[in-house]
Design goal:
Elements (H helix, E strand, L loop, with lengths): L4 E3 L14 H4 L29 E3 L5 E2 L15 E4 L29 E12 L1 H5 L2 E2 L2 E2 H9 L4 E7 L5 H10 L6 E5 L11 E7 L3 E3 L5 E2 L12 E7 L11 E8 L14 H19 L4 E6 L16 E3 L15 E6 L6 E7 L10 H7 L5 E6 L14 E2 L5
Parallel strand pairs: 5-8, 14-15, 18-20
Antiparallel strand pairs: 1-2, 3-4, 4-9, 5-19, 6-7, 8-10, 9-10, 11-13, 12-13, 13-14, 15-17, 16-17, 18-19
GO biological process, one term: DNA catabolic process
Keywords: Hydrolase, Nuclease
Organism: Rhodopirellula maiorica SM1
Length: 398
């Protein structure tokens, strides 16, 4: 059952004259074709196209709210699908009888920390999600096994213009008795090959803050796929005057052709504007200071350019190799080391070959990227304190 309610929100990013609209920050120096309307391809959960003022807010059994505003320096909020916990889909996952990954029930996790991850699941569409075993590899079972190790995962490259692939993934994870859910963006992109972003999380460990999910509006088309944003809070019992850790995540996937030195407008140098403006917006709106930008940026740490020039902002994993072939660094988790003191200093990748016992060819059937993760305190840290130790990569998840 879908429960709806209307909500309006007026928000301003920056109070000083000349700050301008976020869309002005995303203004391109060259003309490009306009992005496809989000109404061109509709989700099975019937998302509503981008709206200016009001969008429906629904339970996790249906659509997530979309909020829009038109004031100086605003960010427009777009409608996002929310996937039901155990919701039925119109397609049935084809189960293959051989070499399936066994999903064991989740073990105990520390109540002191949460683990956040980013994962580009290559071409994660209907074909990939509807066929359990491919060439002897349980692709969907492997994806479910990986995602279920984390409390919250930002996913890129969801194909097909709807949320069905993510629904199937969540349903498979929940066969173990887990309680995962997700929110999925409308399809984004300039061409017919659009993609969706998704956040998938364990409802017993993390909750999404109501009406917090949106897609950054890019009217002047400076990015091929404008980022998706959502805010979350760890589920933890307050103690010693410490509140559960709350934070905003910016899920990004750059166009590899638009982050090169030859690109007319480098998308990395747009993301720094996005980071600063989203953080200011969330602070003005909710008092939120912790902003985490993560995703497939298609560059290594040496080429983060203006994004790395934001004071105190750094890539947690640096130049850790993140592609399945172990040759490139594409994926990052970036935080402000002064603001986000909840970072514990632990991060790593899930090596699809070493950790899961796959050959390179088998691992590439799962994805051409490895998941990158980082650990954070489940509690807000007082200013001036930090739980971070020397940042040393941890490959396996313990």
């Amino acid at each position: 059952m879908i429960a709806e309610q209307s909500t309006t929100l007026k928000a301003t990013i920056g109070k000083e004259a000349g700050m301008g609209l976020l869309s002005n920050l995303l203004q391109s120096s060259r003309s490009r074709s306009r992005k496809q309307s989000s109404s061109r391809t509709r989700s099975v959960l019937s998302y509503i196209p981008f709206v200016r003022w009001i969008g429906p807010s629904v339970s996790f059994a249906g659509i997530a709210a979309a909020l829009g505003m038109v004031v100086t320096g605003r960010i427009d909020l777009s409608v996002l699908d929310t996937i039901a916990d155990g919701a039925a889909t119109s397609d049935t996952v084809n189960e293959a009888p051989v070499q399936s990954v066994t999903l064991s029930p989740l073990g105990d996790r520390s109540i002191e920390t949460i683990r956040l991850a980013t994962f580009n699941i290559q071409m994660f569409g209907d074909k990939k999600s509807s066929t359990r075993v491919v060439e002897g590899v349980d692709v969907m079972g492997t994806l479910a096994q990986i995602v279920s190790q984390f409390d919250l995962v930002a996913i890129q490259e969801v194909r097909g213009g709807n949320s069905v692939p993510v629904e199937r993934l969540v349903d498979l994870i929940n066969t173990t008795g887990a309680r995962y859910t997700a929110t999925v963006s409308p399809p984004i992109g300039r061409t017919s090959q659009t993609e969706c972003y998704a956040f998938v999380w364990d409802q017993t460990r993390v909750q999404m803050i109501r009406d917090s999910a949106y897609v950054v509006q890019d009217n002047v088309d400076r990015m091929h796929r404008e980022p998706m944003v959502a805010s979350f809070q760890a589920i933890a019992v307050p103690r010693d005057g410490r509140r559960p850790f709350s934070f905003t995540m910016i899920n990004a996937h750059t166009d590899p052709d638009e982050v090169t030195s030859k690109a007319t407008s480098n998308e990395i140098n747009v993301l720094d504007d996005v980071f600063v403006r989203v953080r200011q917006f969330e602070y003005d709106r909710m008092g939120e200071e912790d902003c985490i930008l993560l995703g497939d940026l298609n560059v290594d740490a040496n080429h983060l350019q203006e994004l790395a020039m934001i004071p105190n902002v750094f890539s947690i994993a640096g130049n850790t190799l993140t592609n399945t072939r172990h040759t490139k660094t594409y994926d990052h988790i970036l935080i402000d080391r002064e603001m986000t003191r909840e970072y514990t200093g632990r991060f790593g990748v899930v090596d699809l070959q070493k950790d899961l016992g796959l050959t390179e060819a088998q691992a590439l059937l799962v994805s051409d990227h490895m998941p990158l993760w980082a650990e954070f305190s489940a509690y807000e840290m007082p200013q001036g304190d930090s739980v971070a130790t020397r940042p040393e990569a941890t490959r396996t998840i313990r």
